[in-house]
Amino acid sequence: MAFQIAKEKGLVLRQEYLEMVRRVVVKVGSAVLTTSKGLNFTVLDNLAEELTFLSKSGREVILVSSGAVAAGRKKLELTSPSLTLREKQAAAAVGQSSLMGSYEDVFEQRGQKVAQVLLTHDDLSHRDRYLNIRNTMFTLFEWGILPIINENDTVSVKELRFGDNDTLGAMVTNLIDADMLICLTDVDGLYTGNPCNDPAASLVNTIVNVDDTVEKMAGNLCGSSLGTGGMRSKILAAKMVSARGGCSFIGPGREPGILRRLFAGEPVGTFFLPNQEKLQNRKHWIAYTLRPKGFLVLDNGACQALTTKGKSLLPSGITEVRGRFGVGDPVHCLDGDGRVIAAGLVNYDSVEITRIQGVHTSKIESVIGYKDSDEVIHRDNLVIL
């Protein structure tokens, strides 16, 4: 299959990349960290052992951790199977301190200092705050401290949420120019079919690129508490990291020594190779961190100009404007069938673009009274998706 390569060649390639990894983000989810009784302290201890091993091997390490809500539920003795949003946020407020306290205990036993960093999507959407967070991470690395990152569940609302910690892990990986994202979960990796009912299903060791075939493999799970959406988010996180030139790994987080085995070259989990052509940091931020505040529907000529000729978006190629947005806001460009083809930052607001859509650049000033730019989106602020 085009998306994967022979096991032997894949293991050689993954080992070549692993030997070059100097900065790594490890994401571990609630399915691994918690049980019905609260935090799984055996897993926490194993995780601290593994990450300390990576740190002492000369690598810079960040941990992206779930578990605050689960820890809070245990501490508050909340037995209801479902909680409202405000109840989850309150449980996270109680549980976050317990979670960090547990991490401090297990890492302190190994002589490793840790720091807590709580983020919302809004923190990464503003370029100045994005860069401030990046500088903080690098300072912590200089001090030999391992950052532990979680979403700030207590203050996050729908507009500020990452959606899942896989996305957060991918964004942090790209934020600090890490070489690798490791997603530790409760499954062995990606399978060619569902191993519960397909005897021919096999573990995919190495994936070259994330295409539609790979994304559909998200449902090939057996005996996992992880839903299809959960595995899909991990695959999309790997796609985000690959676009910036990093590699990713999905593997079993409850197995003792899993990271030692991975870096020793054992055929564990599923490894994602990086794209050969990588997006520069700012364009990756536009494409994968910013959320669109509106949409521009383009005609066939404009779609071709953007995707095959590397052109800027001119008003003449726009057929419809959707949503309300201002100058400099992020938007997505759609083709006639509604498929997203590009992301970019606009030079005019939605009202102005509605007035100049389909108009030649020479007539912009006569329509809206001024002209700051010929382009609605300049190619320097445009990313093809």
TrEMBL record:
Pathways involved: Amino-acid biosynthesis; L-proline biosynthesis; L-glutamate 5-semialdehyde from L-glutamate: step 1/2
Segments forming domain PUA: 294-377
Source species of the chain: Candidatus Desulfobia pelagia
UniProtKB keywords: Amino-acid biosynthesis, ATP-binding, Cytoplasm, Kinase, Nucleotide-binding, Proline biosynthesis, Transferase
Pfam families: AA_kinase (PF00696), PUA (PF01472)
Catalytic activity, reaction form: L-glutamate + ATP = L-glutamyl 5-phosphate + ADP
A single GO molecular function term of this UniProt record: ATP binding
Protein name (record): Glutamate 5-kinase
First-listed, main subcellular location of the protein, grouped into a coarse class: cytoplasm
Binding site for ATP: K27, T185, D186, T228, G229, G230, M231, R232, S233, K234
Recorded superkingdom: Bacteria
Coiled coil location: none
Family note: Belongs to the glutamate 5-kinase family.
Subcellular location: Cytoplasm
Enzyme class per UniProt: transferase
Role of this protein: Catalyzes the transfer of a phosphate group to glutamate to form L-glutamate 5-phosphate.
Gene Ontology BP annotations: L-proline biosynthetic process
Binding site for substrate: S66, D153, N165
EC numbers for this chain: 2.7.2.11
Cellular component GO terms, alphabetical: cytosol
